[in-house]
Design a protein that fits this description.
CATH architecture of the largest domain: 3-Layer(aba) Sandwich
Radius of gyration: 23 Å
CATH superfamily of the largest domain: NAD(P)-binding Rossmann-like Domain
Bound molecules: NADP nicotinamide-adenine-dinucleotide phosphate
Pfam families: Pyr_redox_2
Structural class: alpha/beta
Number of helices: 16
Helix content: 25-40%
Protein name: Pyridine nucleotide-disulfide oxidoreductase
Cofactor: FAD
Keywords: FAD, Flavoprotein, NADP, Oxidoreductase
GO molecular function, one term: oxidoreductase activity
Shape: globular
Number of strands: 19
């Protein structure tokens, strides 16, 4: 029998478990350990609440979770309740599928003023992550600045713009919906340190900005390269840039009815955030591109008045004591997923925060191939009973998948009209509902 512990119950964790089932059939026992009492990681806490069709992939993970040889072990923190060393003593392979839940740091003066948030915190707040339920972002100002030209910047801009009615059918948590409804926002400026041809935004997500009830996107024609240059882009990027061109052509008359303008400010690198005890403005420097398409400052700076700054500049994997880490890239040091003998990483923890949810599927299958090659038939480790004995001795209250199903049932039962669920945002409430 082979015993595998997977740390993290997001997409990378469940695809790895699925791969292990396929590879080893009945000859494997997989424990998926998560620090939270609820599964699915990024699907629950990262994917935007108004993108329910993407969240539906959790149905596939549930099939894996409900089989005999895979087990969800929730409410167990690796590094506190059990160490990596202990897990390595109990399992043939330990696979870190911990994702990249921490923000890449916005390293500019004033970056820690009240009113500056990383996207992990802001997204976590509207998605009901227990760590960020008490965030209380100030939405009483007229102008919000968003830093970054990726899909998370788009998610944040869209969520800040939607009306209550547009959130129908979403599972945005009520504490966020209620505050967003009273928001005074009139302008959202998305800052890109490079140009329209260097965005990391995908066409579907960009296109959504053109169909908002009370907001409309604004692009300055002068920022766009010659149309002919779009031919050099790969097809997805070309579509994205076509959306930007459409935004630049929106007539002023159309804007008159809209309360919120979503401004794309390209070639604008953040220099510092200023304010008296809280955010009042962000100072940016005009940039240009060098031959390698990197942004270079021109020395010209200007200030954008704003009361909140949300930095959407990418994520990083939290390090774990004793596990080799690649600081520059914010992920575990690994060679094709192998960290140390018996210790592996997969998904964003392996390659950094890039790609779609589906990218984690081949990643999961590849890591299980490596595990299979390394562990053979297994080494007589104890696996599950050993972990259970250890956690019981330490008084850790484990949340099982069947407990999660009760939590889910309770969340569905207390949903707003038209919403799929109302998430619990406190760990104690989750545990109480699962008990
Ligand atoms: P991302 O795609 O890596 O974009 C990060 C952006 O931040 C880039 O535009 C980058 O600009 C900019 N940036 C980085 N450091 C900066 C700095 N110091 N100052 C100013 N700008 C800076 O990251 P993300 O938006 O967090 O997305 C993470 C992953 O999740 C991506 O693969 C994304 O596609 C995926 N995602 C997908 C969806 C969806 O499909 N609906 C939704 C959300 C997220 P440079 O290019 O100049 O470095």
């Amino acid at each position: 029998m082979r015993h595998i512990a997977i740390i993290g119950s997001g997409p990378a964790g469940y695809y790895s478990a699925e791969a292990a089932q396929k590879k080893f059939g009945e000859d494997v026992r997989v424990d998926i350990i998560d620090r939270l009492p609820v599964p699915f990681g990024l699907i629950r806490f990262g994917v935007a609440p108004d993108h329910q069709s993407i969240k539906a992939v959790s149905g596939r993970y549930e099939k894996v979770a409900l089989s005999e040889n895979v087990r969800f072990v929730g409410n167990v923190t690796v590094g506190k309740d059990v160490s990596i060393d202990e897990l390595q003593g109990l399992y043939d392979a330990v696979v870190l599928a911990t994702g990249a839940p921490d923000d890449r740091k916005l390293d500019i003066p004033g970056g820690d003023l009240p009113g500056v948030y990383g996207s992990a915190a802001f997204v976590g707040w509207y998605n009901g992550h227990p760590d960020f339920a008490d965030l209380e972002p100030p939405l009483d100002g007229k102008h919000v600045a968003i830093i970054g030209n990726g899909n998370v910047a788009l998610d944040v801009a869209r969520i800040l713009s939607k009306t209550r009615a547009e959130f129908g059918g979403s599972d945005i948590v009520s504490h966020a919906l209620d505050v967003l409804e009273t928001s005074a926002t009139e302008e959202i400026t998305i800052l890109g340190r490079r140009g329209p041809h260097q965005i990391a935004m995908t066409p579907k997500e960009l296109g959504e900005l053109a169909h908002l009830d009370r907001a409309t996107p604004r692009v300055d024609k002068l920022d766009l390269p010659e149309v002919g240059e779009d031919a050099l882009l790969e097809p997805g990027m070309r579509k994205s840039v076509t959306h930007l061109r459409e935004f630049a052509a929106i007539p002023e008359a159309y804007r008159a009815d809209k309360q919120i303008s979503i401004n794309f400010d390209f070639f604008a690198a953040p220099v510092r955030v200023e304010g008296d005890g809280k955010v009042e403005r962000i100072v940016v420097e005009r940039t240009k591109l060098d031959e390698q398409l990197r942004s270079v400052g021109t020395g010209e700076t200007y200030a954008i008045p704003c009361s909140m700054v949300i930095s959407c500049i990418g994520y990083q994997t939290p390090s774990i004591e004793g596990v080799p880490y690649e600081h520059g890239r914010g992920r575990f040091a690994n060679v094709e997923g192998r960290i140390l003998p018996g210790l592996y990483c997969v998904g964003w923890a392996r390659r950094g925060p890039s790609g779609t949810i589906g990218t984690n599927r081949p990643d999961g299958y590849t890591i299980i191939d490596a595990v299979a090659e390394d562990i053979g038939e297994g080494d007589g480790k104890t696996g599950r009973p050993g972990l259970d004995a250890l956690l019981e001795k330490r008084g850790v209250q484990v949340v099982k998948f069947s407990d999660w199903k009760k939590i889910e049932e309770a969340e569905i039962a207390r949903a707003r009209d038209g919403a799929p669920r109302e998430k619990f945002v406190r760990i104690e409430d989750m545990i109480a509902a699962g008990g």
